[in-house]
């Protein structure tokens, strides 16, 4: 191991011990890239120098946190996934009296509002309780506000149409100057809060968990932990949706989930498995 790798390893250990944020088992290439960028943009010459300030200055660490995570997202990202949700998942949810949904790693909220639109169009939004979480307080603040750049609107509308949406998209936002603001009626059953998938505990009795484009940054061991967390958080017939490059297959929880629609990375808890 070279000196830079050793210094980064020690820095990640220090961050975990001081702040409880555990980046030690994120895939090494993604974490190296992100911390290298932080170092290049700082006045420090090495991770060891930086570690001193991170350990002694909470506000300095807080200012770096948004750069340690990747929060790229968009509304109706991967329209085929949302099409599959419309066709396969929503009819299952419609059968329930109360629907509990957890968006884990929701970033700035575009994914959550996309799902809220689907639930509303299916006429089941009012019986849904939506919990949307992320490790990063900064993106959560933006998610709560639901204010997005006007310049992204065209893409969001294209995605919405490609996902099978046929309503006037203008029903879902109001616009001013260079921003669009999500309609308040889509927000009323959503609770945004901070939750760390690596260190925090279960959300119980969920009917649907959506965790897309988060696990790609975790190594196998960490993915196993998160799948167990999801299994323990899901109702006995709960549904789990992952990103297009993520899969529960080959994880230690593989036998506890069955494919609902593997091509869209949608899985269901196997009916004969008990919570361990
Ligand atoms: C690439 S974004 C995905 C956003 C959205 N799910 C989507 O697919 O468009 C990944 C998000 O995962 C969050 N994240 C990373 N590590 C996390 C952790 N340990 N616990 C909770 N969220 C985490 C990041 O802060 C970021 O907002």
Mind explaining what this structure looks like?
- This protein is an alpha/beta fold and 276 residues long.
- It has two domains: 66 residues, no CATH class; 191 residues, Vaccinia Virus protein VP39 (Rossmann fold), CATH 3.40.50.150.
- The protein contains nine helices and ten strands.
- The strands form two sheets. A seven-stranded mixed β-sheet has the order 6-2-1-7-8-10-9. A three-stranded antiparallel β-sheet has the order 3-5-4.
- It is globular.
- 36% of the residues are buried.
- Bound molecules: S-adenosylmethionine (SAM).
Integer-rounded radius of gyration? 20 Å
Please provide the count of β strands.
10
**Can you give the mean pLDDT?**
94
Distance from first to last alpha carbon: 38 Å
CATH H-level superfamily of the largest domain: Vaccinia Virus protein VP39
> Helix fraction?
40-55%
CATH class of the largest domain: Alpha Beta
The topology string of helices and strands comes to HHHHHEHEHEHEEEEHEEE
**Domain count:** 2
According to CATH, what is the topology of the largest domain? Rossmann fold
Instruction: Count the DSSP helices.
Output: 9
Show unreliable segments: none
- Largest sheet geometry: 7 strands, mixed
Strand content: 15-25%
| CATH architecture call of the largest domain | 3-Layer(aba) Sandwich
- Which molecules other than protein and nucleic acid are bound? S-adenosylmethionine
């Amino acid at each position: 191991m070279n000196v830079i790798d050793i210094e980064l390893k020690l820095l990640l250990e220090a961050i975990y011990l001081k702040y409880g944020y555990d980046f030690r088992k994120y895939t090494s290439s993604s974490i190296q890239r992100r911390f290298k960028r932080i170092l290049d943009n700082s006045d420090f010459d090495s991770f060891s120098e930086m570690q001193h300030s991170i350990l002694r200055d909470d506000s300095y660490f807080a200012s770096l946190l948004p750069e340690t995570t990747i929060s790229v997202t968009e509304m109706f990202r991967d329209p085929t996934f949302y099409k599959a949700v419309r066709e396969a998942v929503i009819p299952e949810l419609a059968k329930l009296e109360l629907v509990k949904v957890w968006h884990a790693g929701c970033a700035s909220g575009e994914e959550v509002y996309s799902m809220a639109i689907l639930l509303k169009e299916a006429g089941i939004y009012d019986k849904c309780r939506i919990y949307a979480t992320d490790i990063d307080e900064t993106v959560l603040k933006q998610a709560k506000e639901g204010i997005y750049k006007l310049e992204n609107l065209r893409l969001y509308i294209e995605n919405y149409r490609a996902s099978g949406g046929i309503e006037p998209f203008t029903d879902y936002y109001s616009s001013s100057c260079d921003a669009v603001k999500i309609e308040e009626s889509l927000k009323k059953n959503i609770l945004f809060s901070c939750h760390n998938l690596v260190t925090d505990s279960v959300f119980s009795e969920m009917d649907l968990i959506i965790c897309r484009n988060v696990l790609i940054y975790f190594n196998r061991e960490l993915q196993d932990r998160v799948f167990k967390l999801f299994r323990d958080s899901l109702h006995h017939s709960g549904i789990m949706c992952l990103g297009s490059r993520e899969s529960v297959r080959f994880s230690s929880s593989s036998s506890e989930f069955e494919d609902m629609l593997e091509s869209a990375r949608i899985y269901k808890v196997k009916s004969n498995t008990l919570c361990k």
